[in-house]
Every structure is written in C-alpha cells, then in structure tokens.
Amino acid sequence: MYDRRQFLRILTAFAPATVITLLGARSLPEKPLTVRSKDGTRIAFECQGSGPALLLVHGGMGDHSRWERVLPAFSARFRVCAMDRRGHGQSGDAQEYSFEREFEDVAAVADSLNPPVSVIGHSMGGKIALRFAHDHFEKVDKLVVVDMALRAYPADETILAA
C-alpha cells in the first residue's frame, strides 16, 4: 500500500513540478461529455487541458470529482479526463450489473479520446483499469494503478481473470 508521499511521487511522474504547487487548486472542467458504452449505457466524463490523453477511473465510492484536486496538475501536461463509472455521478446504469460492462465503459471513453491513452485507476477503478488494459492493450499508452487490493471481493476473480 502507498502512503501519501509515495502516491505524490507517482503523480509527479505524470506532471513534474506542478503536483505540489497545484494540489490545492480547484479545477474548472470543460462541459461534461458523454459516450455510449457497448450496452447503450451513457457514460459521463469531464476533461480539461491539452496534450496526450490521460483517463482517470475513480474507485468504488464517489464519482469523477474524487480527482478534482489533481486535475489542474495533470492538465498542465495532458488532456486529462475523469470519468463517472456506471451508476456513479452523471453516468447511467443498467438493470443488471456486470464488471464486463465496466471494462467496456472504460473502452468507450478511451475510444472517444483517440487512443492510445494513459490511464490512472484508484482502488476498484484500478482493478477495472487493469483489466481494461489487459483486454485492450493496443489502446493503452501507460497504466498506473493506485491503492488496489488484489483480492478483496469475490468478484475480483472476474476482474482479474485473464
């Protein structure tokens, strides 16, 4: 598990020198965007900045706003997009839940950003990002997974199986 300093070192690899100075800044994202996932579910995300695409996938709780404090740092170097996972924030949901749909959701957002994209996933979002990267290797430039328990849930077998 990473402590705060280790996490900041990881972030600094993506946005050197700006992480420390901009961590407290509030982001002003562009207009929310949406894509349709493979099953038709609407997936929302917000972007800011310009440059290579960086996709942020939040954990099991919350929504894209979990990344609010780091968006300014990343946007100094990337077109950074923070998505709302299905059933979270402004994204839609389906009648039946499946982790497979979550992987497809990340693929839909990544496709809209003109892959390859770099991806950072936190906690459950890290597991989803890891499986997305495995299933769609050609769409991924770099992958960072933060604070991901390897086998905390029975469903992890589905997520990590590959």
What distinguishing features does this structure have?
162 residues; alpha/beta; 6-stranded mixed beta sheet; 21% strand; globular
Short structural description:
The protein has 162 residues and is α/β, with parallel strands linked by helices.
What does the model show?
The structure is a single chain. The chain is globular and about 40 Å long. The protein has a 6-stranded mixed β-sheet. By secondary structure, it is of the alpha/beta class. Strand 3, helix 3 and strand 4 (79-83) form a beta-alpha-beta unit. The protein has 6 helices and 6 strands. The two termini are 23 Å apart. The protein is 32% helix and 21% strand. Helix 4 (99-112) packs across helix 5 (124-135). It has helices spanning 4-14, 18-22, 71-75, 99-112, 124-135, 156-160, and strands at residues 33-36, 42-48, 53-57, 79-83, 117-122, 140-146.
Secondary-structure map with pairings?
Blueprint: H1 4-14, H2 18-22, E1 33-36, E2 42-48, E3 53-57, H3 71-75, E4 79-83, H4 99-112, E5 117-122, H5 124-135, E6 140-146, H6 156-160
Parallel strand pairs: 3-4, 3-5, 5-6
Antiparallel strand pairs: 1-2, 2-4
Helix pairs in contact: 4-5
What does the overall shape look like?
Answer: globular
**Low-pLDDT stretches:** 16-29
Kindly estimate the percentage of residues that lie in beta strands according to DSSP.
Answer: 15-25%
Helix percentage: 25-40%
Tell me the strand order in the biggest sheet: 1-2-4-3-5-6
Q: What is the structural class?
A: alpha/beta
